[in-house]
Amino acid sequence: MMTKHSVLYACLLGGLLISQAARAEQLIIAASPSVAGAVEALGRQFESTHPDVRVRLYLDPGLDLRRTIAGMENSPRGQYFIGSGPIHLVAPGGDELITRLEQKYYVLPGTKRTYAEVPLVLVVPEALVDAPTSFESLAQDQSVRIAVADPDLTVLGQKTRDMLLAMGVWGRIEQRIDRATDMRSVLDHVLNGQADVGILFGPDAVRERERLRITAQSAAGAFRPTVHSMAMERYCPNRALCGEFLEFIQSPDAQAILQRLGYSSPRQQKADR
């Protein structure tokens, strides 16, 4: 019976053989599904300037991703050496996992590169013409109903409340808040007319751009956003190539791609603080 690690290795090895036949080197990124769209977009752009490289993703949720890497590192059936591992880079959703992997020396210290932050955005139905254009304006118009994810049950709701509290807005709009269960419920409440506006994470709002319009985005320092980074796996088979990709994800071209997907640039935000 094949273990999850052996299945991963077999898939990657098979891909490597196919890649060698096509004379293209694979760059394998172990990533969380939550950042798959962003990493795939970055990979396509990287390939356009590196025609001999093919970026491939191995997707696994955060905890499973950590277990997969730990199993690969500690497997008695196949000990890896520097430059011999099947994974190049690790891109979990959020930085907590990378910190844990650094502590275990599963990724190389000093290789972590932050490439995106997740802003909060104010959304309205695409057809709505006269709409609030800032989070502060929510406190001024007493007729606006605001859909917010439940702060006690969701990360979206917690971060929304933190931001509005920091801005001094929460207490002034609390009576007009339409508390939704989660992100999907916020979307439904806005589109069904139960609320006039809603607050979502940027990437979620962009995915609904045919039905929603973004009228405002959280400012730098307004709250503590989710941060996304990548790091080099300890046994990465091509450190030079990994270094190129890690440098690329912080480049202006890469940041422009991510901003179109609803992310904000951590480099720009740090410059603004």
Total of helices: 11
Across the major sheet, the strand order is 2-1-3-10-4
What characterizes the major β-sheet?
A: 5 strands, mixed
| Cα Rg | 21 Å
Q: Beta-strand percentage?
A: 15-25%
Class computed from helices, strands and strand pairing: alpha/beta
Report the average pLDDT across residues: 86
> Separation of termini?
53 Å
Fraction in helix: 40-55%
Give the oligomeric state.
Answer: single chain
**Topology as a string of helices (H) and strands (E):** HEHEHEHEEEHHEHEHEEHHH
Q: How many beta-strand segments?
A: 10
Low-confidence stretches: 17-21, 268-273
What does the overall shape look like? elongated
Question: How is this structure best described in words?
Answer:
This protein is an alpha/beta fold and 273 residues long. 40% of the residues lie in helices and 20% in strands. The protein contains 11 helices and 10 strands. The chain has helices at residues 4-21, 36-49, 62-74, 96-103, 155-166, 170-173, 183-191, 202-207, 239-248, 252-260, 266-272, and strands spanning 25-31, 53-59, 89-91, 113-118, 120-125, 146-149, 177-180, 197-201, 212-217, 226-232. The protein has a 5-stranded mixed beta sheet with strand order 2-1-3-10-4, sandwiched between helices. It has a 5-stranded mixed beta sheet with strand order 7-6-8-5-9, sandwiched between helices. α1 (4-21) packs across α3. It is elongated, with a radius of gyration of 21 Å. The model is unreliable at 17-21 and 268-273 (pLDDT under 50).
